C-alpha cells in the first residue's frame, strides 16, 4: 500500500477551514487522493527510514519532555504505525528511533534537520509531522511538551501563524472529542462534567466486572477507564481546574 495521501489532504483541509466545518477533511481527502500522489513522489512509496526514523525520534522526545513516558503516550505513537502503513521491519526501526528520543540528554535539532531536508519545503508533510507529535503531546498536555513542539515547528520551517492555526483547530477538535467521551455538552457546568465522569468510571471500571470475566473484557474495561480519565483531565486543564 502507499502513503494514503488522502490523510495528508484531510489534514490540510482541516487547517484551511480552521476546523469550522466537517467538509474540510472530506474535500481535503478527495483532493489528496486525486492530486497529492502526482505532486509529491514521496507519497507513492512506503515511508522511508529517512522520514520515519527522525519522525519517531521526535515523537519519543515529545513524550519524554515532561520527564517520563506514559503508556498512553506510547499508544498514541503506535496508532501512527497503522496510519502510515508501516510494515514489520519499519515498525521495528520506528520503535528504536522512539527509544532514542527518550534518552536523557537527547537533542531535537538533528532529527528536525533531517525531516526539513527530506520534506523539501512541502508544508503538507511538515504539518503531518506536527499532527503526529501534537497527538502525543496532547495525552498529558504538559507545558514542556508544548514548548518542544513550538521549537520543532520553528526548526522545520513551519511559519508561526500556520502552526498556531493548526494547533488551535487540533486542540478544539480534541476537546470536543473529550466532551463526547464523557457524554456531556461543552457548556455543561463543572459539577455536571464531574458527575458524568464519575458515573461513567463507576460503570466501566474493571472492578465492576464479575470474577469470571475474560481477560479481553478486563482489558477493554481498563482501556475505557483510561480514556475517561484522560478526557476528564484534559477538560479540567482547559477549564483551569487543576
Plain-language structure description:
The chain is mainly alpha-helical. 73% of the residues lie in helices and 0% in strands. Helix 3 (49-64) packs antiparallel against helix 6 (109-119) and helix 3 runs antiparallel to helix 8 (143-155). The protein is globular, with a radius of gyration of 19 Å. Mean pLDDT is 80; it is low at 15-27, 33-39 and 43-47.
Rg from alpha-carbon coordinates: 19 Å
Total number of distinct structural domains = 3
The helix/strand series, from N terminus to C terminus, equals HHHHHHHHHHH
Oligomeric nature of the chains: single chain
- Secondary structure tally, helices: 11
Low-pLDDT stretches are: 15-27, 33-39, 43-47
Number of strands: 0
- Share of residues in helices: over 70%
- Distance, first to last CA: 44 Å
Could you say which overall geometry the principal axes of the C-alpha atoms support? globular
Structural class: mainly alpha
- Characterize the main sheet: none
Percentage beta strand: under 5%
Mean pLDDT reading: 80
Please describe the structure with a list of short key phrases separated by commas or semicolons.
mainly alpha; single chain; 11 helices; globular; 0% strand; 73% helix; 3 domains; 242 residues
